[in-house]
Amino acid sequence: MIKLFSLKQQKKDEEGSARAGGSQKKASAAQLRITKDLNELNLPKTCSTEFPDPDDLLNFKLIICPDEGFYRGGRFVFSFKVGPNYPHEPPKVKCETAVYHPNIDLEGNVCLNILREDWKPVLTVNSIVYGLQYLFLEPNPEDPLNKEAADELQSNRRLFEQHVQRAMRGGYVGASYFERCLK
Amino acid sequence: MATTETHVPEQQRRWHNIRKLLERSGPFCHPDFEPSPDILDFLMESCKILVVGAGGLGCELLKDLALMGFKKNHIVDMDTIELSNLNRQFLFRKSDIGSSKAKCAVDFVNKRVPGCEAVAHHCAIQDLDEGFYRQFHIIVCGLDSIVARRWLNGMLMNLLQYNDDRSLDQSSVIPLVDGGTEGFKGNARVILPGLSACIECTLDLYPPQKTFPLCTIANTPRLPEHCIEYVKVIQWPKENPWGSSTPLDGDDPQHVGWVFEKAQERAMKHGITSVTYRLTQGVLKNIIPAVASTNAAIAATCATEVFKLASSCCTNMNNYMVLNMADGVYTYTFNAERKPDCVACSNTTRVLDVEPGAILMDIYEKLKEDTGFLMKNPGITTVINGRNKTLYMPSIKSIEERTRDNLKKKITDLGLYNGGEILVADITTPNTISIKLKFIENTDVEMSR
To answer: Where is this region: Disordered (chain A) (predicted)?
Structure first.
């Protein structure tokens, strides 16, 4: 236990005499943690990152180019926004590329458990990267965000595959138009 | 003599009970406690307390502290008074709606408690600087936000001064007493920055925000909350009813009304009932129902801890108390332990000797080769004038390419200076560590190289 009362007395005497101030502002806990996360980012060869401003580690893009599965040959861009409450709250992740996918809707919302209800502070940016990569290898029709795509994957895998291809080449699937996103 | 009774100065009678605590010793006193009338004098005339938040807890705290004798209280809150505050934030009246919480609270208490000289700050805690926070002896907070707590915690850690042998300069410690409530549950804790567990050490104790799986709210909503979340997360950004640059504001009745209407439509479609305006507001603003008696109990606990800290008349709680009045009344106090590798309070600042004319490459090499560091892939950043700056980060290709040129630059040209700190992340350390640069004067001129 510290001798606070005696310290108070001291402080009282010191009052008025400005202490040597102007010390360097420290980085926030969120900033320290994301720096650590990023420095240890161990990207699979299908993924890369892009930082529009290298001084801003809180906003960046992740690019996934799957080399197998339905989405082989595509190039998908995700935006990451890391808030001041990281890692208590997960980063906000959106898919910027229009994709015909059971777990990604046309607004770019991504249904990945660790991005919402199952996020834990021990998880890192790397966990999210692997989670997103997994979505492309194993689309999960059980938890759909694009219900049409999910139903199709379950009922007619062949047709689903054709539609994924068409969307990636650029074209309409149903009433929705998809920009070309092949590498 | 019967007449003396009425002549006892009002002042003396007023503090009669407090004096009993401060001018007598007892078995629960702090070991260093020396009973003396000076203590009351200190509490009243010199001890400066900052109350953070003038809401449910803040009103109670300011009143409690003023009645205990603390005169020099400051209170900070950025909010204004709303009708729904009045049931428990008892320093406010209906005519105060729309005014600053901090100012109204101070006006009320200064008028009601003779001698009280409280000062209001109607602004965000982030708007006040180090010099402001440094003037206080003790800070007590009643906040509803984890971000704000973490910020304040970071600020107090920032104020700590360490001696050259890395021991803590105890005169730089400003104790933080933190209270929080949620319905019938609450907690109070005492944090001695740099000495006991801090907010960041125990971050896992905060319950995670209630979220629902996106696919559930999109396809199989079962609860009225699912419908409201759907409108908030999916429908708002899609339809942008107030233009694409207007984010959803839970305080704007028009926005809430729009969400309420859409959520009701959606609920109807899925056979869900009981989407109400109040629930909509609750989901959007993450409102936790506040109970006046919980606030009163937690604030009283916090104020008592402030009194103990300021007077040493009693040892403090050690150091985290939980209160649960949901089912009977239950309290438990435990010793929250420090995290040895806490990003906020473990003083990991190390010192690196560099020549004033060094280039960034010299530092990078030193971090990898110096036996004190032996790092693998150090990523180096710093903070200059409050802005983060990435100096060199080898592991991220796009950043590496754009910061590579920095390696050849003189560190002074990059904005670093003697005593300045760099932040280094590497797999060899559990956290990003800060390293203080110490410029060494090269006295013997050895320019032959």
So the answer is: 1-28
